Amino acid sequence: MAYKPEPAGLKLRLIAAQRLKSVLASDNFVPLGATDLADGRDRALANRLITTALRRQGQLNFIIHALLEKGMPGKSGTFEAVLRLSLAQLVFLPDLGAHSALFLAVEATKRDPKARHLSGLMNAVLRNAQANSAKFGMLSDDLLIPDTFGDTWLTAYGEEAIDAFSDALLAGAALDLTLKDDDQDLIDSLGAERVIADTVRIEERDRPVEALPGFAEGRWWVQDAASAIPARLLGLEPGARVLDLCAAPGGKTAQLIKAGYEVTALDADAKRMERLSENLTRLNYTAETVVADAGKFEPPSPFKGVLLDAPCSATGTFRRHPEVIWHRSVGDVAGRVRLQRALLTNALRCLDRDGVLIYCVCSLEPAEGEEQVDWALQSLPGLKLLPIKPEEMVGLEAAVSAKGLVRTHPGMMPGGRAGGMDGFFVARFGRNEIG
């Protein structure tokens, strides 16, 4: 029997479906790399299909509900993932062509023993979707944000901001870097533009991060513009001892070292701390590293500065991780709030009497930000608020509240630059006289 070659594009469809299936099951999205798909063009296409399916998840939920009268079949292997990839292509990526979406979806379904009995259903559903693609393509962007967070965000940020959130979700995130040294030649060679302070932004790139100019020499590190804000607000003298709690993978640790502080970086995850050490080695930076529980750590002596980047719902990172707003629940946020309070309590114990404590989260939830400040000031008698001033946030003055707290969100334009930024909350505290 003559050998029948595998249809072009099927391999990348199968690999993309497996990756999307894992994300739908609650894993975080990690883009496919060279070990997954060697060909760069195939890899780029597969990642484009997956990210479109994730960014359009709310709209795809609506479409699937309209097309599957009996709902999603149970125990059907990769059927749902293949269906979502194919619907994303048919409705939202028409430049890729409808024929390949239909043909490859059926072929991919046939390759899965748990789904092959549904190949006819796949074909019928996608042909229905193709016939209605114009209508589905006009679905409201209101569907992009789940009700779990939409109402809270509308109250906290307003309708204009929510519209910007949807735009930011669909656009994704540019690559922001923090420079080790101010070097215009390096910025030019990266094809980057200045954003705020020592953050630069690369809007488009044609190579992986590791292949960009200056990476191997340790001249910069990857860090969103919002994530780079907290460490700048400590305002201590060079040489001050600073504790970086929940430090991995080390972007803020690197900032603290750059500022001239004597840094102790702590995280409970040993593997993530290995990554932190590798990152610091590349940058030729050194810090004391400790693997320990940030809620129980007892230092031999208090620190002049403590930076707590607390574990949180991470809803502010949805430009890069669109799945996060569908994975998180109200209960998840409540659990993070309890953990943050325990960490804040211990962070204060680690702080010297005239020290500075920075609390931050990459969350858009007021419960993890503004409401935590209210709780801390009421519940921790040793704590006082040190208001952040607008002049400390040049290029982002609008992010500073009347109370002296920093709140960024994906609709903001740092330094007037398009492309948005992560949602972040930052508060600065000191010890009061009775603490």
User: In percent, how helical is the residue content?
Assistant: 40-55%
Distance between the termini: 83 Å
SSE order: HHHHHHHHHEHEEEHEHEHEEHHEHEEE
**So how many helices?**
16
Report the biggest beta sheet as strand number plus sense, adding barrel if it closes.
8 strands, mixed
Radius of gyration: 24 Å
CATH class of the largest domain: Alpha Beta
Shape estimate:
globular
What is the CATH superfamily of the largest domain?
Vaccinia Virus protein VP39
DSSP strand (E) fraction? 5-15%
Number of domains: 3
Structural class: alpha/beta
Secondary structure: number of strands? 12
* Average predicted local confidence, pLDDT: 94
Low-confidence parts? none
Q: Kindly identify the CATH topology of the largest domain.
A: Rossmann fold
GO molecular function, one term: RNA binding
Binding site for S-adenosyl-L-methionine: 246-252, 267, 293, 309
Domain SAM-dependent MTase RsmB/NOP-type: 137-432
GO biological process, one term: RNA methylation
